[in-house]
């Protein structure tokens, strides 16, 4: 396999951390380049106008925090692996699928929370929706019991 490009979805959830670790291990074995993506949901950046924090500033801080988090992930798990960081704003699934095409990913790695029943119905599954609509193979790393 040549020119492998693994896009790893990252956030600060335990399931995502497990997926990041797995994705970097896989990249090391395949000698692949990693794209580490942390999508910033701009809709959550409401700020607090009374405190002088406007939505644009809150979004900037969220993006800055995500970039620092991704840098920390590379430092912890990306030893010797060529990694590129992405912190786009948008809806998670659509943004990941768009970047996977644009970046020419050959594989996507995502974690799953393992929700069931009503929680799954209400919260949905980003990993499942990526799996359903991706144009490349997707590895879904289960949370599992540890």
Global outline = globular
What's the CATH H-level homologous superfamily?
HUPs
Q: Total helix count?
A: 5
Which CATH class? Alpha Beta
Class by helix and strand content? alpha/beta
Main beta sheet: 5 strands, parallel
- Unreliably modeled segments: 115-124
The CATH level-2 architecture is identified as 3-Layer(aba) Sandwich
CATH topology: Rossmann fold
Strand order of the largest sheet: 3-2-1-4-5
Order of helices and strands: EHEHEHEHHE
Distance between the termini: 32 Å
Strand-residue proportion: 15-25%
Helix content class: 40-55%
Number of strands: 5
Q: What does this protein structure show overall?
A:
The structure is a single chain. With 146 residues, the chain is an alpha/beta fold. Mean pLDDT is 83; it is low at 115-124. It contains 5 helices and 5 strands. The protein starts with a strand and ends with a strand. The protein has a 5-stranded parallel β-sheet with strand order 3-2-1-4-5, sandwiched between helices. The protein has helices spanning 14-30, 55-77, 92-103, 117-123, 126-133, and strands at 5-9, 33-37, 83-86, 107-112, 138-142. The radius of gyration is 16 Å and the shape is globular. It has a single domain (5-142), classed as HUPs (Rossmann fold, 3-Layer(aba) Sandwich), CATH 3.40.50.620. 46% of the residues lie in helices and 17% in strands. Helix 3 (92-103) packs across helix 5 (126-133).
């Amino acid at each position: 396999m040549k020119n492998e490009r693994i896009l790893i979805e990252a956030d600060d959830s335990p399931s995502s951390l497990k997926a990041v670790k797995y994705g970097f291990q896989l990249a090391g074995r395949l000698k692949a380049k990693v794209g580490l993506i942390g999508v910033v949901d701009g809709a959550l950046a409401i700020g607090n106008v009374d405190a002088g924090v406007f939505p644009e500033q809150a979004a900037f801080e969220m993006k800055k925090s995500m970039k620092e988090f991704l840098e920390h992930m590379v430092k912890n798990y990306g030893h010797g692996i060529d990694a590129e960081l992405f912190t786009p704003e948008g809806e998670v699934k659509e943004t990941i699928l768009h970047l996977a095409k644009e970046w020419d990913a050959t594989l996507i790695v995502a974690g799953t929370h393992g929700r069931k029943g009503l929680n799954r119905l209400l919260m949905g599954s980003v990993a499942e929706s990526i799996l359903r609509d991706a144009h490349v193979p997707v590895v879904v790393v289960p949370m599992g019991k540890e």
